[in-house]
């Protein structure tokens, strides 16, 4: 007889916890923070080692020995989307930006992250894990014995979006990356995890919305960071010896802000077409929630070069202008600086 069990999508849950040693999973359930997810999550097996090559063995049909599969030595990603909460936003930001400037010593604990000219390669690996931030992820599965553990995960890309949609709560999409193989049958006790906070960042309640120092009426915004995370080397078990970030094209800060077209925004096209090497092409974009130094504070500060300029004539609130951008360092201003304050002492 077929099984009568029926699982709901909402039965699948995700949590992350700090690790202290590269390659060693955190198994203390009470240290895991559950992520508020709105799209279901699963492992992307695209990095699994799988070779299927017909060998010369006197046969014209491929047989099972022509296929080789191995989990060690591969790379694995998990994409997670949901609502940004006060007690997990700093974990996501650190995992992607990987450059912590400071953490306050008293409550509320203020953390500042930035990407600038001094940003380099954080340290990973068992010998020196102090600078790189990596997590153990647990994927809780309602089917018996199917929980998945992934260790030493960094966030290769993070996008945070704000708009009136969905009630106005800021949302996130994060891609977690690891060079260690997933472990099936792991312990995942969701009842012991720290639950997602109900303290949200509400788009309609932003305290500061400025572009180029001028107050704006903002229709929506997106801030994104990509660090190009990749594995480096293989130990005797086929596991990575470390990770590398920011190679090739380097760390990428991108985004877009949609603002009302008016006297404060009509000249942004001039900045878009200006030559940055001659100066006067950059604008500072700031979106801030809450009060500086108070619990629940979140501030994005980007030194932006526009990559486009287009008018939106179809907005029911009037004409708006879309300003896609990339964040750049100019020797004085960081490509991006993010400040967050919450009641959690991470001891970073």
The N- and C-terminal alpha carbons lie at a distance of 54 Å
Low-confidence stretches: none
Q: Let me know the largest β-sheet.
A: 20 strands, antiparallel
> Quaternary status of these chains?
single chain
Kindly provide the radius of gyration, computed on alpha-carbon positions and rounded to a whole number of angstroms: 22 Å
The backbone outline, from C-alpha atoms, is globular
Q: What percentage of the residues does DSSP assign to strands (E)?
A: 35-45%
Question: What's this model, at a glance?
Answer:
The protein is mostly beta strands and 348 residues long. Helix content is 4%, strand content 40%. The chain is built from two helices and 24 strands.
Description:
With 348 residues, the chain is mostly beta strands. The chain has one domain. The protein has 2 helices and 24 strands. The protein has helices at 89-97, 268-273; strands at residues 13-18, 33-34, 37-39, 43-44, 49-52, 67-70, 76-83, 100-103, 109-115, 135-140, 148-162, 171-178, 183-184, 206-211, 214-215, 218-226, 230-232, 242-244, 252-260, 282-289, 298-306, 310-312, 320-327, 336-342. The strands form 3 sheets. The protein has a 20-stranded antiparallel β-sheet that branches. Strands 5-6 form a two-stranded antiparallel sheet. β11 (148-162) and β12 (171-178) form a beta hairpin. The relative contact order is 0.18.
């Amino acid at each position: 007889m077929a099984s009568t069990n029926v699982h709901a999508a909402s039965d699948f849950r995700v949590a992350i916890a700090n690790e202290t040693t590269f390659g060693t999973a955190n198994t203390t359930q009470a240290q895991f923070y559950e992520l508020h997810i709105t799209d279901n999550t699963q492992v992307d097996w695209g990095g699994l080692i799988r070779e299927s090559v017909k060998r010369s063995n006197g046969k014209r049909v491929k047989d099972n020995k022509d296929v080789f599969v191995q989990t060690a030595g591969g790379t694995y990603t998990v994409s997670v989307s949901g609502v940004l909460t006060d007690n997990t936003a700093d974990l996501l930001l650190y995992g992607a930006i990987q450059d912590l400037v400071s953490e306050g010593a008293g409550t509320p604990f203020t953390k500042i992250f930035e990407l600038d000219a001094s940003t380099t390669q954080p340290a990973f690996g068992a010998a020196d894990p102090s600078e790189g931030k990596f997590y153990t992820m647990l994927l809780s599965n309602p089917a018996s014995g199917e929980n998945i553990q992934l260790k030493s995960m960094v966030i290769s890309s993070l996008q945070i979006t704000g708009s009136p949609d969905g009630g106005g709560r800021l949302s996130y999409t994060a891609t977690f990356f690891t060079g260690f193989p997933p472990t099936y049958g792991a312990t995942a006790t969701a009842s012991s995890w720290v639950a997602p906070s109900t303290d949200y960042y509400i788009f309609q309640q932003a305290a500061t919305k400025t572009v180029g120092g001028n107050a704006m009426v903002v229709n929506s915004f997106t801030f994104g960071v990509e660090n190009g995370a990749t594995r480096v080397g293989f130990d005797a078990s086929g596991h990575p010896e470390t990770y590398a970030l920011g190679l090739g094209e380097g760390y990428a800060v991108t985004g877009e802000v949609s603002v009302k077209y008016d006297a404060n925004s009509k000249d942004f096209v001039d900045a878009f077409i200006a030559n940055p090497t001659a100066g006067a092409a950059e604008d500072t974009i700031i979106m801030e929630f809450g009060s500086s130094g108070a619990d629940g504070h979140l501030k994005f500060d980007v030194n932006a070069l526009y990559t486009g300029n287009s008018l939106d004539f179809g907005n029911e609130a009037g004409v708006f202008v879309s300003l896609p951008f990339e964040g750049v360092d100019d020797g004085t201003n960081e490509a991006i600086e993010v400040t967050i304050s919450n009641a959690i002492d991470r001891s970073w």
